[in-house]
Amino acid sequence: MRDVARPAALDARRRARDLDRLVAEGVDVLVVGGGVTGAGVALDAAARGLSVALCERVDLAAGTSRWSSKLVHGGLRYLAQREIGLARHSARERAVLMGVTAPHLVGRLPFLVPDVAGRDVSALAGLGGRLGDAVRLSVPGGRRSLPGTGRIGPEGVSRLVPGVRPGRGGVVFWDGQLVDDARLVVSLARTAAAFGAGVLTGVTVTGVDGGAVALTVDGGSTTVRAGVVVNATGAWAQRLAPGVRLVLSRGSHLVVPAARLGAPTAALTVPLPGSRTRFVVALPQPGGLVHLGITDEPVAGPASEDDPVPSDAEVAQLLATVNRVLARPLDRSDVVGAYAGLRPLAQSAPAGDGPGGAPVDLSRRPLLAWDGPVLTVVGGKLTTYRSTAAQAVDAVVTRLGRGAVRSPTARLPLVGAAPGRALARVDAAARLVRRYGTEATVVAGLGEEPVVDGRSETVGELRFAVRAEGARTVDDLLDRRTRIGLVPTDRERAAPLAAAVLAAES
Ligand SMILES: Cc1cc2nc3c(=O)[nH]c(=O)nc-3n(C[C@H](O)[C@H](O)[C@H](O)COP(=O)(O)OP(=O)(O)OC[C@H]3O[C@@H](n4cnc5c(N)ncnc54)[C@H](O)[C@@H]3O)c2cc1C
Asked: What is the number of the ligand 1 atom nearest to the C-alpha of 203?
């Protein structure tokens, strides 16, 4: 394993140099797709000493990885399906993220299931939460990572989520929450770059023929050599691997001002009407917002290049469900933004081959499938990206005949990561420490003026994004390095300044 020299600055000069090197020398592993899966694979492979290039057609976290619910799950859902092994696996990876890999990016989030949603529902949540606690206690690092499940009274409910109809108690269980899913991807890519990986955004892989990989880049096309290609293109995976069968489903969230729910400090969890296991959750976010999700709508493939959008019916479903427990119902005028992502559900056999003729759904486990020199890695979860990547790179080193170098990533902090005590000593605003960890002082030194009046993002964050995080466009700055774009009216106000920073820094 190589040592990390220092955090890599992904800037225009480095991109040009990495591109020249890729064309001239080729690589052991060319990873296609700069989401959490691709960035995780690039890091794992580079940290094992392989030469690596990560090619992403748009930008880091341009796909599903920025449209998630931003939860680092302990696998409660798997417990409901009696998948204890999967739940332990999730809990183990959650502990790695919270304890080693990215303690700055992952916080603790209480989930409130209020009795006003139905006493049977909160009782079941309590049972599930306690099972989840038992699983957490059984994995390394799990004991101290989160508090235990418990009941609270009516005052506790009003304190955690003041907008809930008063007078009844509820159940609280705990899980992990990312400050921002796109930041995890950017941190992974920069850490991979620190181990020597080329990180090339704006590069589309158009085909693979033996060891020759066709790319389009900056308006031209070229061919490069790679020992192995890892296809981590998520919902678009079939373009490079037509043999892989995917079924797509859309998951949508609404963005509402936190003030409308009384500035909650817990995730409000409400079952869909008629269900005791499927929930809508109002998730508190930084910057005085709440994200309300999530839906599960079948989508006819193939995936379009455009960002998916929530349908009218999904908006109605999300609002109606959360309104079941609110004292003052939300309506459409409260919605200040909305987003959606595509789940690629991988099938190993034709639909209809499952028990009782049902589709064989492997969505809970990632699918790894070779086709010639292309290894497709699709499905899985953001929470478990690290183990998915390790599994993929195990297969890659075997294919390349590089012996059995084990994945080092469970002990590898990402750029900016440090134990809680060290983070507490970083001399910068807590908000910046949560997003940049030990690099927060550098970001603060680049300018603390707000990008938009009334919001907390700073000009320093935009400058840092161009200088060190590979941002090349206004969209990169507003939709991926910061998340101002989740509120379109704020995005409009921020765009001129973002353009000016880009021009000055590029
Ligand atoms: C609505 C929703 C909510 C979710 N919530 C959670 C959650 O709370 N917690 C959790 O653990 N998991 C969650 N998940 C799952 C998680 O988000 C995904 O498993 C994960 O983001 C998938 O990442 P990926 O890298 O495989 O795909 P993507 O993030 O989609 O990345 C694929 C990338 O490939 C690029 N690409 C495509 N074609 C090419 C090409 N030819 N050349 C170059 N680049 C290409 C795309 O631009 C894209 O950036 C959620 C999923 C959805 C849909």
From this structure: 43
Q: What is the pLDDT of residues 34-66, one digit of tens each?
A: 999 999 999 999 999 999 999 999 999 999 999
Residue located nearest, by CA, to atom 52 of ligand 1 = 68
The CA distance from 350 to 343, in Å, is 18
User: What gap in Å lies between CA 73 and CA 109, rounded to an integer?
Assistant: 11
Residues 6+ apart with CB under 8 A from 142: 91, 92, 94, 95, 135, 136
Tell me: cis bond preceding 484? Omega within 30 of 0 counts.
no
Pocket of ligand 1 from Cβ distances under 6 Å: 32-38, 55-58, 62-65, 67-71, 73, 204-205, 232-236, 239, 251, 294, 341-343, 380-383
Domains and CATH numbers, the chain: 12-65+182-232+361-411 (3.50.50.60), 105-178+246-346 (3.30.9.10), 420-505 (no CATH)
Helix axes 119-137, 84-96, angle to 10 degrees: 70
Query: How many CA atoms within 13 Å lie on the side-chain side of 225?
Result: 6
Mean pLDDT of 479-491: 98
- Nearest-CA residue for ligand 1 atom 48 is 63
User: Which stretches of 105-160 are DSSP H helices?
Assistant: 119-137, 154-160
